[in-house]
Amino acid sequence: MQAIDRLRHEAADLMEKYSVPGMVLGVIVEGEALTAALGVNSTAHPLEVTETTLFQIGSTTKTVTATALVRLEELHFERLLPGFSFPHRVASLAGASLLGIANCGSHSVDILRLDLG
Length: 117
Prior knowledge:
This protein is 33% helix and 14% strand. It is of the alpha+beta class. A two-stranded antiparallel sheet has the order 1-2. The chain is extended and about 50 Å long. The termini are far apart.
């Protein structure tokens, strides 16, 4: 069974468990992009999901952003991006309270606040 088939099977089980009407999955296996479309795009006006169906992203970007910030800290981003620095009030991503990562959940991160005068 291919990786995408296993993923499709697991996703279908989770869709049923959590009442998710539809989704599109994508993975890269040995350099090959594999996709799978499952379910319908809406329960109100159901259309079959295809690999090009667009979904509203909603608040998932907050999770992705917070995960990326934590991962950058784990990778010691200052070695990957020499010369990059955060504004004066952010000493390190490890000092999450300085960065305001908790604010990622409320759309109020202000890392790049500009002082216009």
